[in-house]
From TrEMBL, chain A:
<keyword id="KW-0804">Transcription</keyword>
<dbReference type="InterPro" id="IPR036390">
    <property type="entry name" value="WH_DNA-bd_sf"/>
</dbReference>
<dbReference type="Pfam" id="PF05158">
    <property type="entry name" value="RNA_pol_Rpc34"/>
</dbReference>
<dbReference type="GO" id="GO:0005654">
    <property type="term" value="C:nucleoplasm"/>
</dbReference>
<dbReference type="GO" id="GO:0005737">
    <property type="term" value="C:cytoplasm"/>
</dbReference>
<dbReference type="InterPro" id="IPR016049">
    <property type="entry name" value="RNA_pol_Rpc34-like"/>
</dbReference>
<keyword id="KW-0539">Nucleus</keyword>
<keyword id="KW-0240">DNA-directed RNA polymerase</keyword>
<dbReference type="InterPro" id="IPR007832">
    <property type="entry name" value="RNA_pol_Rpc34"/>
</dbReference>
UniProtKB/TrEMBL annotation, chain B:
<feature type="domain" description="DNA-directed RNA polymerase III subunit RPC3 winged-helix">
    <location>
        <begin position="354"/>
        <end position="430"/>
    </location>
</feature>
<feature type="domain" description="RNA polymerase III subunit RPC82-related helix-turn-helix">
    <location>
        <begin position="7"/>
        <end position="68"/>
    </location>
</feature>
<dbReference type="InterPro" id="IPR055207">
    <property type="entry name" value="POLR3C_WHD"/>
</dbReference>
<dbReference type="GO" id="GO:0006351">
    <property type="term" value="P:DNA-templated transcription"/>
</dbReference>
<dbReference type="Pfam" id="PF08221">
    <property type="entry name" value="HTH_9"/>
</dbReference>
<keyword id="KW-0539">Nucleus</keyword>
<comment type="function">
    <text>DNA-dependent RNA polymerase catalyzes the transcription of DNA into RNA using the four ribonucleoside triphosphates as substrates. Specific core component of RNA polymerase III which synthesizes small RNAs, such as 5S rRNA and tRNAs.</text>
</comment>
<dbReference type="InterPro" id="IPR008806">
    <property type="entry name" value="RNA_pol_III_Rpc82_C"/>
</dbReference>
<dbReference type="Pfam" id="PF20912">
    <property type="entry name" value="RPC3_helical"/>
</dbReference>
Length: 315, 539
């Protein structure tokens, strides 16, 4: 009986290692993570106790990590590099690091870290963050939306658009001059295109109209050729600049089906003029007068004594 | 009737007709309609003066009268008729461009007189034209009456002048009320021979057999007035200017010039032809015109602007694909059926006017944000900033400035039932009708101010202007050159400079009145196009 017990013991030890190896193998196969059921299917001869021991051992040696998906538990293979990264750090730091890593390139705010890690003490958290920063594992990035807020993310990641604001923000300040320059250049390009079209097709109004349209891509190429932008602009950025032109009333939008078999419609733009001349109301001082609501015929402010009218009539 | 509109009416009445008529007119405008006794009580003037004032106002088509339930005659005034006075130069200019000098003088005569018989109008026009010919010493022979009479028929056919509303009488032959004639058959009935007779109070018109001798019509209060005869009776009828037709013409003009700006001059000619065609086919107050076919438009184009059908087709394509939605293609029969959408056109023109006002008042950055709001309806403040790509501080300042002056409205949408500001969405949007009305009031105020300023300018320099007039009168009566020079010396150099300044200032003020009137016209056209007619209760 004793020998049978010894044999069983040996078997069990072997199977323990087997289970661990099997688990590692399964994890490598499915990088997304495996559930308990998958392990059970792979090593049917082991019982639940052995599986649990194997999993726990792998977890403590940091070979795999535990994730939760819905109500189920997932085991995922851990990156050996990552394992080495936080070597020497204690569990609290590990937890904080994990949370920041999960936030990826959007970054995470200190308060959110505190909530997720359940750490009550702010000083402890700050110390951990400072530690990690000095180890060059994480960095703080100023958010463009709320300038006082700092978000933390992994050191080697590029901050996301929503944090830095894209090409229009440099050092988290809105660069209005840059936008205005691009706006003016795009307008000039569209106007030139319309002029060229009217020279080429003086008698064909429809063709003239069609050739005076330009797509966002065309405008983008023209601007990149001019070389006024230090940053690389995407087509989407160009579209937002052209939208501001539309809102200025200097351009109009239309759609054209692209000639390829894809059949997608692309946005095209054209320079245009306003429908009516400047209104008569603003050609008189009354139209732009700041105190018009207090103006009465025989009052302190009246047309008879109006200073603005006097200047206007004396030119 | 808003306060500012009434103030403007008062200014206009005072300027054109004097204090007495102004106070009578204003008393009528402040109250919907009042009998004579009420007017006397309110204005505290002599009955005789009031009656004369009423007569001149009726003559000018500003006041109408009817019998009320109590059996008294009530008088009511119309503020729109008074505001038309601002547009007189525009009407006259329009008549001139459409039909020439003779038409210009005819329309001017009818406008100044309010209503007149054709005979009088024609005579005066002939005299004016012949005078100007004599002065210019040209070799053109004298204008004959028949030429002018032809012009009159052309104007009637174009519906620019019409017969005046007649009066209805009761069994005693007394005048009780003005007819509310809107039958186009009668209004635009071409003038007959007797319409050109001289209007006389008591004589029988020659050549007409009449059973009933011309009576002097008695008004209810015993006052006598000149005869306002019906066409069936003897005597010529009165004619006046049909302002509604002129307004349609102005609206068409605005659309044509807008099309010229969007596409080009030739396209505006196409638009003009289409509008001319739709005039005959559509009821004027409709928001969309009747269908016009491609072949119709082609054949209707004026001879000197004819173009190949290919080019015409292209222009129509441009017009219908245009994003303002003026013209839409509705079918393929007849080479393509097109329809003009007047309400959209007027709305686009109105929006454009408002945009220019925002541009001048707040700046180009504010205009950008305004157009974002127009395009996106309800937007949060942050979104406006992002779309317009403006620095947040500036954007915030401009947006709130526009909000303070009521160009922009705010809608609150709370997330929580306690409506806490931190948990509420605040949406900005533009309510076009509200903004138009607000700007219309501002225009009225500006026009009133300009008129007041002009009068002040004139009265301040009255002495100088009178002096200049006398000097001119003396010079024109003299012949010798040295005496002329002597008299001219009476006006010193500095006085001459002052006079020149006054002249320029009044010119600037008058032009601004006309420009303000254009804006008033477009805003009013838009507001009226949004008013739906009241449902008719069938008894």
């Amino acid at each position: 009986a004793a020998s049978i017990a010894i044999v069983k013991q040996e078997l069990r030890e072997d199977t323990d290692l087997d289970i661990e190896a099997k688990i590692i193998e399964l994890c490598t196969l499915t990088p997304k993570g495996i559930t308990d059921d998958v392990i059970k299917a792979a090593v049917p001869q082991c019982d639940i106790q052995q599986r649990v021991t194997a999993v726990n051992r792998l977890l403590s040696t940091n070979r795999i990590e535990l994730m939760k998906s819905g109500a189920k538990l997932l085991y995922k293979l851990k990156d050996p590099d990552a394992a080495s990264q936080i070597k020497g750090a204690d569990t609290e730091e590990k937890v904080v690091f994990q949370i920041i890593k999960d936030a990826q390139n959007k970054g995470i705010w200190t308060r959110d870290i505190r909530m997720k890690s359940n750490l009550k003490n702010i000083q402890v958290l700050n110390k951990i963050l400072k530690n990690l920063e000095s180890k060059k594992l994480i960095k703080a990035v100023k958010s463009v939306t709320a300038s006082k807020k700092k978000v933390y993310m992994l050191y080697n990641l590029e901050p996301d658009q929503s944090v830095t604001g894209g090409p229009w923000y440099s050092a988290s300040e809105f660069e209005s001059e840059f936008v205005e320059i691009l706006n003016a250049q795009a307008h000039k390009f569209l106007q030139q295109k319309a002029l060229d079209a009217s020279i080429v097709y003086p008698e064909d109004p429809w063709k003239r109209l069609q050739t005076s349209y330009a797509s966002a891509d065309n405008v983008l190429q023209h601007i990149t050729n001019l070389g006024i932008s230090k940053v690389n602009l995407s087509v989407k950025d160009m579209e937002s600049i052209l939208d501001t032109l539309i809102y200025d009333g200097k351009a109009e939008l239309s759609a054209r089906l692209s000639g390829s078999s894809g059949g997608e419609s692309i946005k095209i733009y054209r320079a245009k003029q306003p429908l009516t001349d400047t209104s008569g109301l603003v050609k008189t001082p009354c139209g732009v007068c700041p105190v018009i609501t207090r103006c009465t015929v025989d009052g302190l402010i009246s047309p008879k004594t109006c200073v603005y009218m006097k200047d206007w009539l004396d030119f | 009737m808003s306060r500012l509109k009434l103030e403007l009416c008062e200014q206009l009445l005072k300027e054109c007709y004097g204090e007495i008529v102004a106070s009578v007119g204003m008393s009528l405008l402040h109250n919907k309609s009042s009998p004579l006794a009420m007017i006397i009580h309110r204005t505290k003037m002599e009955a005789k003066q009031i009656k004369q004032a009423l007569c001149s106002l009726i003559q000018q088509n500003i006041v109408t009268f009817h019998k009320n339930n109590a059996g008294l005659t009530e008088y009511s005034g119309s503020s729109d008729a008074i505001l038309c006075r601002l547009r007189f130069p525009h009407y006259i200019h329009c008549a001139k461009t459409l039909f020439g000098d003779a038409a210009e003088f005819l329309v001017e005569e009818l406008l100044v007189q309010g209503r007149s018989t054709l005979g009088d109008a024609v005579n005066k026009t002939v005299n004016k034209l012949n005078e100007s010919l004599a002065v210019s010493k040209s070799s053109i022979p004298e204008i004959s009456q028949n030429l002018i009479k032809d012009k009159v028929s052309i104007l009637v056919k174009a519906r620019l002048i019409r017969r005046c509303h007649d009066v209805s009488r009761d069994k005693d032959g007394k005048v009780i009320s003005m007819d509310d004639m809107s039958n186009p058959e009668i209004l635009f009935d071409p003038p007959r021979e007797y319409d050109y007779e001289k209007s006389t109070g008591s004589k029988r018109s020659a050549g007409e057999i009449c059973e009933v001798p011309l009576k002097k019509i008695k008004l209810e209060d015993g006052e006598e007035a000149s005869s306002l005869g019906k066409p069936s009776e003897t005597g010529p009828s009165y004619w006046c200017v049909n302002v509604h037709q002129f307004h349609h013409h102005f609206r068409d003009q605005a659309i044509i010039s807008a099309v010229a700006k969007i596409i080009d001059q030739k396209a505006s000619e196409v638009m003009r032809t289409m509008l001319r065609l739709s005039e005959t086919k559509t009821v004027p107050t409709d928001s969309i015109s009747a269908h016009l076919s491609f072949t119709e438009i082609c054949t209707a184009m004026p001879k000197d602007k004819i173009m190949t059908s290919n080019v015409m087709d292209q222009y129509l394509k441009c017009l219908s694909e245009n994003c303002s939605g003026f013209v839409t293609k509705v079918g393929e029969s007849g080479g393509g059926m097109f329809q003009i959408n007047f309400s959209k056109a007027v709305e686009a023109l109105c929006i454009s006017e408002i945009e220019t006002i925002v541009l001048e008042r707040f700046g180009s950055k504010a205009l950008r944000m305004y157009r974002v709001l127009l395009a996106e309806k309800q937007v949060e403040q942050k979104q406006v900033e992002e779309k317009a790509m403006l620095p947040p501080k500036e954007a915030k300042e401009l947006l709130y400035k526009m909000f303070a002056e009521n160009f922009v409205t705010l809608t609150e949408l709370s997330k929580a039932p306690d409506h806490a500001p931190a948990r509420t969405f605040y949406f900005f949007n533009v309510n076009l009708l509200q903004v138009s009305r607000m700007l219309l009031e501002k225009c009225y105020k500006a026009t009133a101010n300009v008129i007041v300023r002009r009068q002040k300018c004139m009265s301040e320099n009255k002495r100088l202007l009178d002096k200049q007039e006398r000097v001119d009168a003396i010079i024109s009566s003299l012949d010798a050159a040295e005496q002329k020079e002597e008299i001219e010396q009476m006006v010193t150099l500095s006085e001459r400079k002052q006079l020149k300044k006054v002249g320029e200032a009044s010119k600037v003020l008058e032009t601004s009145e006309l420009l303000l009137d254009r804006t008033i016209f477009i805003l009013e056209a838009f507001i009226n196009s949004t008013i739906k007619p009241l449902p008719v209760i069938k008894k």
